[in-house]
Structures are given as structure tokens and as C-alpha cells.
Amino acid sequence: MLSKPQVAEGVLKRPEYLKLVNLIDRFNATKESYQQLVILQQIDMYSKAIVDNCESEFFEKPLAPRVGAYTDGIYAWRHQESFKSNKSSNTSNTLSHEPEQSLEEVLQHYGVHRDGSIFLRSIEFAAAYKQLGITAPQLTYEENETNLDKLYTLLSNRYSILKHLLQETQSNDASNLHEELAKVHIQLFDLIEQAPEIKELVAEHLNILALSYAKIEILQNKLEQEFSEYQAAPLQEKRVNNDNVLFTISTNNAKKDQDQKNSNIELVIRLEDRDNLVNEEWLKSNKVARFFVQDYATFMKQFPGEINSYRPVAISQYAKQGNLKQIAKTIPREQSDVLVEKTQDYFSQISEFCSELIKLNIYHPDIKLTNFLLDNGQVLVSDRKAFEKQQKIKLTGLRTSPLYAPPEFLTLLNKSGTGVKSIAQRKTIDLVPFMTYQVGMALKSFLSGGKSPSTLLTVDLLKGCPNPSIAHKNLVTLSDALTRSLIEHRISLEVFHSMLDAKKLNLEPEKFQLELEKVAGKNPFVMTHAIKQLMAESEDIDVNAIETLLVPYDKSLTWIDHDVETTLIELLKTKTLSSVSYKEFAVKLAEFHRLIQLGSVEDNNILSLDRLVKESKALLKNSNAKGSNFAERLLLKAIIKVENDYEPYLDTVAIRSLIDKFNNNNLTTDDWQQTIDFLNKYLLIQDKKSERLTTSFSTLQKASFRFVSDELAAFNTKKASLFERFLAWMDISPLPNRVVTKEDMETDPMLQRSHLLLSGLSSEKINVLLESNPELATSMVSLYDNFQQSNDKLKQLKEVETALAELLKTKTSSSVSNEELTIKLTELQQLIALGSVEDNHILSLDKLLKETKALLKSSNSEAEKLLLKVIKQAEKDYESDLHTVVIRSLVGKFKHKNLTTADWQQTIDFLNQYLLTKEKTSEGLNTSISALRKASFRFVIEELAAFNTEKASLFERFLAWMNISPLPNRVTKEDMETDPILQRSHLLLSGLSSEKINVLLESNPELATSMVSLYENTQQSYDKMGKLKKEPVGGKAKETGNSDSSSQKKESTTSSSPEESVELQGEGSIVIREDTSNNAESTEEYGESSTIIREDVDDSPTINKDVPSENDAPSSSFN
């Protein structure tokens, strides 16, 4: 008898659980092996889908949000080695005395491995049918079908039948489906017997699964023993964004010689960066699976405490040749025939893979060289997490690599690349032309020797090959046809695959283009041909005719095709536009193209680009048209592109020029402004993108520091007495600093340039600039603190002091003495004058503000109201610093468990204020809030654990101690309100909204779901702390286990904030989120490095035109 999963009571009535229980009941009710085998396959497929987070495909209606406890229960049941009786099981509903077995035991009875590959388990079920003596007629095949075609026909039929049975468990034609299923399995078994290559593949799967079974047990935390036969190490190169480990199995325990070493089996343990295996069973049952790496064992690994607590793990084939980017770098560019042969082979496979995927209504929006592996000449895909099920989708949630993405995608991103522009959030994108473009970019990258795609649209792909073959030139043409900026001009993947035929690929270029036009049914280069036609007709071309042709492109011409732009430059050189010559524009544009084609970042090339940018800006400035025609828009586009792509190098040139002017003391006002701009841009950035920039900026920083120091020293020398100068000269004491106010900096001629520099920087940047002289840094920060200078605050205080003195002379009646008011005002004035945000000063200020507020609590006089106004302003100015020190104090009290009622109130206030705020005003506040959040989380966890331990039976405690099952959660809302153990946690949680509770407890999703269900829609005001008996709106909440509604809230409350972001470098994939910024109208070109939602890096950073760095970050490993 097959056991049932033990799950929380709240899950018992969910339809997805009832489906599984119904299958188990049917399995246990029948004693016929044939029927048991039919139902067991459904149980295996469906329960695996639950753990794989993809069971929704077996339901017509959408399911309620997933409950963590449900997945945990099914996971534990699937991984139960043998059934352990538990009398308290809430699923035991049978009076049968037959001993219960785990799913693994039942599967083993039929010779099926629970963690075997989808392919292997299908074959093992076929063998089980064969043992029952069932027969089936021979399957008829197409004449040209290979054994591999036959295999995948049967596997896809098997999947379709099982899916239909699971979707319609009470279908009238179930018996017919059972017969069809049996027939498919028998035919599958017979095929293996007849096809040696498939039989060999089955043996390979069985052998590797057997050899690696102990490792699987280790990965599933069932076994702690290590084995000398197993060796694991990070892969030398990072692959496809997953955590990959090279796993070597020694096939001989004796001392290894070289031959034995070569006989070892090398595999990859792949921990995937996703939380589901949607479409995996379907994909691996179809012919497209031949493009996937062989997975010999697949299972979900549990990560308790993480947001995505289950992630797929596979022990899979090791593609020894590496990825296609690595392959491209090994092919000599001068060997045109070799490059053509490899390109033709690999991209025929890629185009075939993409076309077959699209036929299955599955789409791959993250196509790039590093996502394709090679083993024995076979192109393979291991990373499938980016696959999508819909052709036209919204950008939100799309995983892709911007450097390979088409213009229709990039134009919808905001300026920083953090998400979609607000005006584009409802737009959809078609993934078929999207994939076509990406294949074209991958082709360009391969032909260029694996270069970064950031420049491939403009570089000459034949450069470096002295004698390119005809086929080589035609491949470049195909890469251009695939990457047309306008979707309607792109060729399809089917056309591309057809044109890779050797006979067509070796046609003369002119004939090849005609054949391409014929096969595609359109001319991909129609725009270029139209412009050339106009050029052939006249020496003077109507500018409006050209503008009309260019209408389909964006107005700024950012995404104009390179061949179209080149043709336009030729037109500007040789023709006039409406009787006006733009030859000078053509010369500048041609020079931009020439310098970019060089791909050099040497000083001479950068200096040439810098000069060209300045000359082009001057040309545009003097132009009469002011951007109204395409010539000017093309030149402006070239300027913007160069400034973006070569930014660190152009900045280096400008900074070196400023340093020379510092040394010669001849900076103009514009030079000072440029210095301020560079200091603001780079002072707080550690990675300056190039060594030259780092060195140059460091010199500029030192020069700026020396200048300020020298000016201040000259000022203090001038103001010092003769005796003070003598003491300084004797090194007895330094000259006193007489720069005490910002007014000195603003008005004294000796300091005005230093003032110009410092007033343009934030206090944090001033501190970094002057860090070599801490005393000077502190002094200047106090004057320029966040542009709310202490000088301005002092002026306000002086005004208050004057008004206060006048009021005190009138002897106004008050409960507060004049002397007390004067003392408090003086102390407040002195503290603010320090301009410091060090902890001791902030603590003193906090104390003084509280004392003064208490003093003025019942004040009515004008003097007291005036002083109160100053207090409020000080609290506003120093809010983040005051909050930081108070929060640190609370964290300390959490550690010592000595919080008062007022402390709890303050904790709730801070959590309400900051839990959902992504951008805090200072790093110190960020750190403090994080510590308070963790302390609050730990406190709640400990109280709940103490409560559940007290309520648990001795047997339940024993099971928890043995790590067999966790202690059951018995906390209800009434417990939270009344039990002394839980009252402080209740006090805390009842003061927070559901969303904030979820964020506070997100490290433990199950607990978060439980607590949100208890406090959902509670209208209890947290400032009424003493009234813990008050019930939530709607009466007493049900227990967690009985609340289906609680589970339904989990998904919505744990979604990521759209503003959450990390940095992308190189060719990394990103996940797009909705944008909340105000960058909707930005049209700036998407650069090589952008700030985005998720980092998913597979290549190290590349800088503009340099050859990409080879120092890829190592993958992390796990046991």
C-alpha cells in the first residue's frame, strides 16, 4: 500500500492535493499490476510536478497561490526512503492493516528510479510493461524517420496521454487511454531492442545514475559521508549563469596512472537559478531535446529559509569543448574556410533548434554564444530558465541580455536600464523576430572571433581576414539580414537555415542577395537600395524624399541600419540636398566611422576622437538647420555614441588636460566647473572602468586637495599675528584656522576658488577629497554639510537669539525661567555649529532636543514658540542621524532583552517608517534598520519556537530532535493575544500591515504566510499597546492550518519591489521589472553596463572597443 503525504490541515481541501490523494486511493484500491502501473506513472509525474512547481499545467483553471507547507509535505513524501508510521498523521483514512510503503519503494518494485532522467524513467516504465507480458502491434513510421525520430514520437505520445489522464481523471475514454499508454510503452521497449544507439544511451544513463547515486544522496542531505571516488571542483569557466560544479567519478580505486585518469567520468552538477521546471517534461519528450545536454539525474534541492526554497539540480553531461564564444576565439581569423565551415555547422544547428522550439510554442529570448555549449561537434543547451510560453509578452519578467537584444526592446527600457519605461509597461513584444535578431547578433559575434556585441553592428566583420571566401562574405550578409533594425525587414530563421545550404552559400554575392530576396519573399536591404536609386537619378536630391524614406526609423536615427547610414554618408559626400551641400558633415561622419572601425583605445586614437567630438559639436552649433535634417541628426547620434562608448577614455583625456592647468595655475571658470563635474562623478566610485582613468583621476583629486589646502593656508597666514607665525615657523603649534564661517569662503578673494570647488560637492565627497587632512575635512564638511550649511543654521539661530533677547526684556510670563531658555538655546547653538554627525554629537543633540522639548511642553510665550521652531528644524535637518543612533540603541536592547514598552513602540514606529522604503537617506541608517529588522525577526522566531515547544508532545519533540519532521505550528490569533510567551511578538506584529509583516519575516516564507493570515486586515491600532485582548475586525481568526485564505496571499505579498536593483556587467542576462522612475522619455542608447533588477552574469566586464577580459568570475560550488 502506497503511503500518503503528511501535510498541514490547511492544505487538505486544496484541489491540487485532493488530485494526488485520489490517485493514491485508486492505486491502493486496485490489485491489478497493469492498472497500478498506469496510476503509478500519473502519481510519479504529478507529484514531481508539484515539487517542480509546475503542477498547474494539469488544471484548466488557475490554482490558488502556492503554500510552502504543501510543497514541503510532498517533497518529504517523495524523498521518504521507507514509510515511518505516524499515528498522528492527518491523512490516514484507511482501516487496512497492509503495511504502507514509500513512493520510492513502490517505484523500485517496478524497477523505476525516482531521480532518474525523464528519458530513463520512461524506458524503465516501458520495461515494467514488458514484464507484464503485454504485446502491441508494430508502430508505422514515415519512410525517412530515424530511430531518434521514432523515439521522440513515442515519448511525446506518452507525455500527451499521461497529461490527458491527469487533466481528466474521470474521463469516459480512460480505458482507451490506458490501452494506448500500454501500446506506446511496448513499442518504446521494442524500439530500444532494435536500435543499438538508443540501447547504448539507456545503458549510459543507467551506469552514470548508479555511479553517482551516493552523490545524489549527499546533495539531498541524506548522507554526510564523503567518497574518495568523487571529486568536485568549480568549473574553470562560468557557464550559463548557474552554479556549476565539475563532478569527476573515479572508475578505479587503485592508484591512478594517466590511462586510468583518462577513463574517469567527467560530469557537471548544475544548480539552476530558477524555482520551477515548467515545460521540462514536455520539452524533453520532444525531438528538440536532442539539443539539450544529457541530464542523468534530476531533482529539486531544498534550501530551508530562502525565498525560493527549492531549486533544480541535475547531474548532467559535461560539454568538454566549452561554449561557442570560447570556440570562436580559437578559430584563426585569417583561415576563412575553417571559419565558414564551423559557422555553417554550428548555426545550422542553432537555427534548427530555434525553429523546432517555436513550433512547440516555446520561445528563447536569451540567445547568445555563451548559452550554447559544444560537445563532439553537437551544439547543446543546458540553461532553459529563460524560456517563455507565449509569443507576444509584456517585458515585465522577461529574462534577456540587452547587448544581444533588438531595438524594439531597447527603446522601451528606461535610461538606466532598471526596467520598462512607464509609457511602455502595457506594450508587448513579439519573441519570434526577437529571437531572429539575437541569432544574428550571435552570428556576428562568432564571425568576429567572439567579440562583445556592443560594437558589432558597426564594425567590419571581414577585417582581419586578408582573403575572405565568397561564403564568408555571404555569412556577413546573412548576419546583416537577421539584424535589421526594422522588424519587417528581418529574414526569418527558416530563411536563414535555408540560406546556410552550402550550394547557396557559395553563390557570388550579387546572386546570393537575389536568391536571399527570392527565398525570403522580400528585400532585407530595401532601404539602402532605395537611397542608391535616388542617388542614381540626380545630383541634387530633395531632402524631403530622404526624410520620407527614413520615417520608419526613430527620429533620432539611433537605430538606423549601418549600411543605410553608410549609404547616406556617401550621398552627403557626393550630392547636394535641396541645393545645400553637407559635405563637411559627411567628412566628420566618415571620420567617426573610421576611428570606431579601428577599435583602438590607445591615446592617439582617443585624442583624435576627443578632437572630432569637439569639432563636430562646433559644426552643429554653427549650423542653420539646428537638427531639422538627417545629416545633423546622424552627426549628433555619432557624438552621443562615442561619448557613451568611450566615456572613461575621453574623461581620461579631459582630466589630464585639467591636471596640466592645475600645475600651471591657469584654470578658467569652465575648467573649474569641469573639475567639479569629474569630482562629483568619480569621487565615490571605486571601479573607474580603466586603469588610465583611475590613475588620472587620483592625480586630479590630489591636485584639487593641494589647491584647497594652499588657499586656506595662505588665508590663515594672512590673518595670523606675528607671534602665531613665529610659533608655526618653530613647529611649536600650527597656525590657527580662522575660516569659521561660509561667509569667509564666499567673500574673501583668497578663498573664492576653493569655495567654488567645495560648494559644488556634497559633504560626503568633500570628506573624501580632503581625507588626507582629517581636521581640515571635518572643518569644511561642517561648513558645506549637505548644502544646508552650518553657517545658514547659525544665522537662523542668531535671529532667534536676538528675538528671544528682546522678548525676555519684556519679562513675558512663563513657567520657564529666562535663564533656562538661554542655556538651552546656547547649547543648541553650539552643537549645531559643530556641524558633526559623529555618534557622540548626535547622541548629545538627541538628548538636548528631548530635554528642551520637555521644558517647552506647556509653553505659550512667543519666545518659547520661537525656540520650539528651531528645535523642529534641527530635528528635520538631522532626522536620519538621530534615527540611526536611536535604532542602534534599540538593537542593543534587543540583544540584552531589556526593551521597555516605550522601546517596543519606537521599534514599531521605525519598522512602519522604513520597512518598505528602499532608499534610506544614509548608509548608517540602512545598516541600522537592517540590524533592527533582523533583531525583530529573531525575537518573533524565538518566541514562536518557545510556544510551539511548550505545546508539543514528547513524541513531536523527539521527531523534531531527530530532524524527521519539524514541530507543528499551533499558534492561533487568540494565542498571540493572550499567551504570556507571545504577547510581545503580538504587540510588534499587530502594529504592522500585512505587507510589512511579510517583509519583516521574509527569511522564513512559511512563517510569513502564517503570520500574515493571522493579522490580515487587522484594523487594530498599534498605539493602543496595553489593550492586547482586543479582537481583530471580523472576529477571532481561525487557526493557520484551517485557513485557505492565508495561503492565497503569499505570492502577492512576497513579490519583489520594482525598484530593487543590482548592477549588470558584460553580457549578463537580466530580468525586467516595472519601472517607477521618471525616465520614461529617455532615448539614450543602452550601454554595456547598466543597473538592472537581477545580476545574471556569464561573462566578465568588457570595456567598449577593447577585447573582452578573459577573467571570468568562478562559479560557486556546493556539496
UniProtKB/TrEMBL annotation:
<dbReference type="InterPro" id="IPR011009">
    <property type="entry name" value="Kinase-like_dom_sf"/>
</dbReference>
<feature type="compositionally biased region" description="Basic and acidic residues">
    <location>
        <begin position="1026"/>
        <end position="1052"/>
    </location>
</feature>
<feature type="region of interest" description="Disordered">
    <location>
        <begin position="1026"/>
        <end position="1119"/>
    </location>
</feature>
<keyword id="KW-0418">Kinase</keyword>
<dbReference type="InterPro" id="IPR008271">
    <property type="entry name" value="Ser/Thr_kinase_AS"/>
</dbReference>
<dbReference type="GO" id="GO:0004672">
    <property type="term" value="F:protein kinase activity"/>
</dbReference>
<keyword id="KW-0808">Transferase</keyword>
<protein>
    <submittedName>
        <fullName>Protein kinase domain containing protein</fullName>
    </submittedName>
</protein>
